[in-house]
Amino acid sequence: MKKEKIIYFGNPVLRDQAKPVTAFHKKLHALVDVMKFTLLNEDGAAALAANQVSVPKRITVINYMDEYLELINPEIVSSSGESVDSEGCLSLPGYFGNVRRAETVIVKFQDRNGKERTIERSGRMARCLQHEIDHLDGILFIDRMEEQFVTNGENKLAVEDLLRATSVKRDVD
Ligand SMILES: [Zn+2]
User: Fold this and answer.
1) pLDDT at position 44
2) What string of H, E and C letters represents the secondary structure of the chain?
3) What is the Å distance from ligand 1's center to 30 Cα?
4) Mind listing the pLDDT tens digit for each residue in 62-77?
5) Domain at 12-165: CATH architecture
6) Ligand 1 center from residue 16 Cα (angstroms)
7) Domain edges within the chain
8) Catalytic residue positions?
9) How many angstroms is it from 45 CA to the middle of ligand 1?
10) How far away, in angstroms, is 48 Cα from ligand 1 center?
């Protein structure tokens, strides 16, 4: 299997509203498998949304906190609490910034066979789920930042510049 190419901030596909998955057959399984392969073979990667491999469909795979999840059509059905913590993104490699999120979320989704599941997660995993579901709505973590920059420890990038670089929307008609 070959890894899918991950796209970076500035690519307008990251701003697309991903479309719901309606068919749970071979083609979906193949896509989820290649997303899983890409995620597991990317150093330090926690999660991958389909948008990030140029497929605007509501799918994300997560390999984080000793848990592997495949979420199709995920939806936050309730959230509570609040926390501010550091966050990064495969589409902006190496950079991190503090983002305010709900502390706990309940997420409803379907598995690759269309079966519905509901999970409740708190802390870092809840943060990861919110970050991924945001991707499916074309929202990036920089949109939610209160600080003025992201950093990789050495360099800082201004959030304002990143927002400008990622603001491009595609004409879909
Ligand atoms: Zn991300």
Assistant:
1) 86
2) CCCCCCCCCCCHHHHCCCECCCCCCHHHHHHHHHHHHHHHCCCCCCEEEHHHHCCCECEEEEEECCEEEEEEEEEEEEEECCEEEEEECCCCCCCEEEEEECCEEEEEEECCCCCEEEEEEEHHHHHHHHHHHHHHCCCCHHHHECCCEEECCCCEEEHHHHHHHCCCCCCCC
3) 22
4) 999 999 999 999 999 9
5) Alpha-Beta Complex (3.90)
6) 14
7) 12-165
8) 132
9) 10
10) 7
